[in-house]
Every structure is written in structure tokens, then in C-alpha cells.
């Protein structure tokens, strides 16, 4: 009869079996991903769907004389059955390897490192969360999605490396709809649910909702002062992370931040960006089997370190620093500024308050020039007071302007924005960002 084990024990048992099944000089690496998640969907402020998902998967790489192949499988959570699945996968890889050519950029970590990090603060009480949401959303049309639970990541290799990471977190992503069809989008995420902080966040959204009932302000294309809320700034940063800090992209001259790293352009001295793994939900090791560390990507507006994975290190003679797959940040943190939340409208004066952006793309990638649309609660502000909502408009501007020459201030308060993606499973990626006040944003239509 199969024995049920905890996720950590399950992974350890499979690794122990693998070590006995490998025939030298074969080598292996194995990655483990699991979640035990609760999902609740809201419509018109009420629970419409609730459920739980518990799943685990494993990815095995077999290496022999420079050749390697991978296979992924879903685990049953029963020891004997999972060992049978793993044995079948191992044989499949042994049959495949002779058909492959050696990989010149394969760079395995020979160090038998160990990492164990379990972030297990008590998960929010569901009854309390539901009561808080019900109370805070009384009288408004709320549509939202709540996800909560532990995410576990494991890694092991035939060289003796072993890593285990668990992070408990929640993420509530919601919108408040006005009767005219306009909406305010907001989120609240972290590891510790605080009823007062949530109520404050909801109150901000409700106040913005009230302004959506006013007549729309029509703006002509042109240049405007603007405040980008953290969620809007996240869209800008998400575009930059597509190769912006990647060693491979920089070496192949395809990074949108090529000019920054070449020293031909710079951002505002107010801008410092870190990959802050040590204070995030992300594991302290990569799926390639290298320990991760905190990195300073941009320091006071100037390029500093880059994200280096094993293949880039092998191809370009660099030192691996544990960059995740794709060499994109997974725990990006921007340093705070000095602008207080209470002073944002006053400092903006007259201009745009932009809560969200969407549909971003590059209009000129080498110049880090972005185009996209305003979304949800975007307001026209006059003399420090919100006057009217603004219809969706397109912007087109360079990051070297928005976060460079035209950046006036960053907020003291920063917002933790967790990935809301549930594709395959929940994610641990996050952005910790302030809001940004810019002297000039270009609207094109």
C-alpha cells in the first residue's frame, strides 16, 4: 500500500531513489514544484466559486557525456507510484540521449550546496478574509479573485546539491465597477493579511470609483504632467524585464537597456533597482542549480550588475549569479523616494493620475521607447484635486524620459505586487514598487 508523505519528504524520497538508480558517469538534476492553493472567485461582491488545488510536478534532466534531455511529469503523491513514473521517465531519457549532440553551453554546478528556507507564517483565516471583503465592498459591484496557500520549490543534483523552499502567500485581485461600465482595479497581496490595511486599500478604490461618475474630461494629444501609480509602473517594469537585464540579451545586443549598460544613456539618480531575493517569496536557488543572491541591477540611474544564467556564462565567459530561466528578475525592488502618499495630488498639481496601463509594447526597442494604453481609473487633476475621469488614451514615451530626465519624484510608500498568474500553478514572482511623478508624459491619441 502506498504511503502518503509531506511534499518535502516526497521530494527527498524521490531524490534518494534517483541517486541509487543513476549509473556513473550519468548525472542528473531534478526540479520540484508544488502548491496547495485555495481559490475564491467573487462577482457582485459575493462568492461565486470556491475550490482547492493540490498538485506537484517534477522535471528530470539526465546528462551523459555532454548530452542532456529533460522530461516533466505530474506526481501522484504516493511513493511507489511516483517511483514507477520516475523510473519510466529515466528510461525514456536514456533512450533519447544517444540521438542528441553534445551541448557546448551546458554548464552544471559541481558544488554540493544546501539551501532550506520555509516561510510559513499562518495563512489568512478564510472566514476573516470573507468577512473583511464583504464589509469593505458593501454597496459596490466587486469582481475579484482570491488565491492563498503555500508554494513549494525543490532542487537536487547528482553532485549532492539540495534545495527546498516554501512560501506562504495570498493575493486578492479585484475591480469595482461603476454603473456606467467604468472600473477601478486594485490588489492586496503578501504573507500577512491585515484587516486595517485591506480596508484602507479598499477605501482608496471606493473613493476613485465615485469620481468615475463625473463627465469625462477630453484631452488632446500632447505632453502632460503625470503620476504613475505602482500598478502602472509595474507594466513599464514588466516590459523592461524582457531581456533588459539579461546577460544573453546584452551580449547579443538585443536588450532594450543596451544603451544604459553601454553607458550611452542613464536613468534618473532617483532610480535604483535590485533583484532582492532575500526578502521575497522567490527561492534562493535557480532551476539550473545555482544559489541566488541579491543583485544591484541599477544604482542611482546607472547600470550595475546583470542577470547571468549558466548558458550565458558558458557562452560569454561570465560568472553565473543564479539568474532564473530567461534571465528576468523575479524579485524586483525599486528603491523608495521621498514623496508621501498624502501629497501626491498636491505635488502633481495639474495633470494625469494614472492607476493602470495595459497593452504595452515597444515602439522603438533600442531606444527603450514604449507605447501602450491607459486603463481603468485614470483621472484629470487640477490644482491638486481630481476633477474628472479621462477616456482611454495611448502614450508613447521613452523609459529614459519617464524614469530619467522627466522623473520628478518617487513615493515613500511602495506596493508589493505579486504575480497573479495561475498558468500551470501559482507563482512566487513579485515587484516591490513606488509610484512615480513625471514632469512629462506624451499622449499620442
Automatic annotation (TrEMBL):
Stored SUPFAM superfamilies: Putative modulator of DNA gyrase, PmbA/TldD
Domain of life: Bacteria
InterPro entries, alphabetized: Metalloprtase-TldD/E_C, TldD/PmbA_N, TldD/PmbA_sf
Transmembrane segments: none
Coiled coil location: none
Every Metalloprotease TldD/E C-terminal domain range: 221-443
The protein's name in its UniProt record: TldD/PmbA family protein
Amino acid at each position: 500500500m502506498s504511503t502518503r508523505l509531506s511534499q518535502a519528504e516526497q521530494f527527498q524520497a524521490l531524490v534518494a531513489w534517483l541517486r541509487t538508480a543513476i549509473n556513473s558517469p550519468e548525472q542528473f538534476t531534478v526540479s520540484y514544484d508544488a502548491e496547495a492553493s485555495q481559490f475564491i472567485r467573487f462577482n457582485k461582491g459575493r462568492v461565486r466559486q470556491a475550490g482547492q488545488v493540490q498538485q506537484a510536478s517534477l522535471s528530470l534532466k539526465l546528462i551523459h557525456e555532454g548530452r542532456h534531455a529533460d522530461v516533466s511529469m505530474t506526481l501522484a503523491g504516493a511513493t511507489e507510484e511516483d517511483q514507477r513514473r520516475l523510473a519510466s521517465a529515466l528510461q525514456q531519457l536514456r533512450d533519447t540521449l544517444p540521438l542528441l549532440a553534445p551541448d557546448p553551453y551546458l554548464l552544471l554546478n559541481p558544488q554540493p550546496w544546501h539551501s532550506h528556507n520555509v516561510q510559513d507564517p499562518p495563512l489568512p483565516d478564510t472566514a476573516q478574509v470573507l468577512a473583511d471583503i464583504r464589509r469593505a465592498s458593501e454597496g459596490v459591484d466587486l469582481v475579484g479573485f482570491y488565491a492563498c496557500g503555500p508554494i513549494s520549490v525543490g532542487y537536487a543534483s547528482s553532485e549532492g546539491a539540495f534545495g527546498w523552499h516554501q512560501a506562504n502567500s495570498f493575493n486578492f485581485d479585484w475591480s469595482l465597477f461603476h454603473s456606467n461600465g467604468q472600473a477601478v482595479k486594485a490588489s492586496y497581496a503578501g504573507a500577512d493579511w491585515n484587516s486595517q490595511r485591506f480596508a484602507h486599500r479598499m477605501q482608496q478604490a471606493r473613493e476613485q470609483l465615485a469620481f468615475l461618475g463625473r463627465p469625462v474630461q477630453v484631452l488632446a494629444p500632447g505632453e502632460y504632467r503625470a503620476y504613475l501609480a505602482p500598478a502602472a509602473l509595474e507594466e513599464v517594469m514588466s516590459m523592461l524585464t524582457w531581456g533588459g537585464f539579461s546577460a544573453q540579451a546584452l551580449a547579443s545586443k538585443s536588450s532594450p537597456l543596451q544603451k544604459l549598460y553601454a553607458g550611452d544613456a542613464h536613468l534618473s539618480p532617483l532610480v535604483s533597482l535590485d533583484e532582492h531575493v532575500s526578502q521575497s517569496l522567490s527561492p534562493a536557488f535557480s532551476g539550473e542549480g545555482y544559489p541566488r543572491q541579491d543583485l544591484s541591477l541599477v544604482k542611482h540611474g546607472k547600470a550595475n550588475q546583470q542577470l547571468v544564467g549558466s548558458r550565458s556564462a558558458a557562452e560569454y565567459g561570465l560568472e553565473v549569479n543564479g539568474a532564473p530561466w530567461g534571465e528576468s528578475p523575479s524579485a524586483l525592488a525599486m528603491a523608495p523616494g521621498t514623496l508621501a502618499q498624502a501629497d501626491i495630488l498636491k505635488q502633481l498639481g495639474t495633470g494625469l493620475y494614472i492607476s493602470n496601463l495595459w497593452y504595452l509594447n515597444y515602439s522603438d526597442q533600442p531606444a527603450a521607447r514604449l507605447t501602450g494604453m491607459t486603463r481603468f481609473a485614470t483621472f484629470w487633476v487640477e490644482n491638486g484635486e481630481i476633477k474628472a475621469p479621462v477616456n482611454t488614451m495611448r502614450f508613447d514615451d521613452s523609459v529614459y524620459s519617464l524614469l530619467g530626465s522627466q522623473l520628478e519624484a518617487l513615493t515613500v510608500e511602495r506596493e508589493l505586487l505579486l504575480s497573479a498568474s495561475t498558468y500551470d500553478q501559482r507563482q512566487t514572482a513579485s515587484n516591490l514598487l513606488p509610484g512615480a511623478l513625471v514632469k512629462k508624459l506624451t499622449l499620442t491619441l
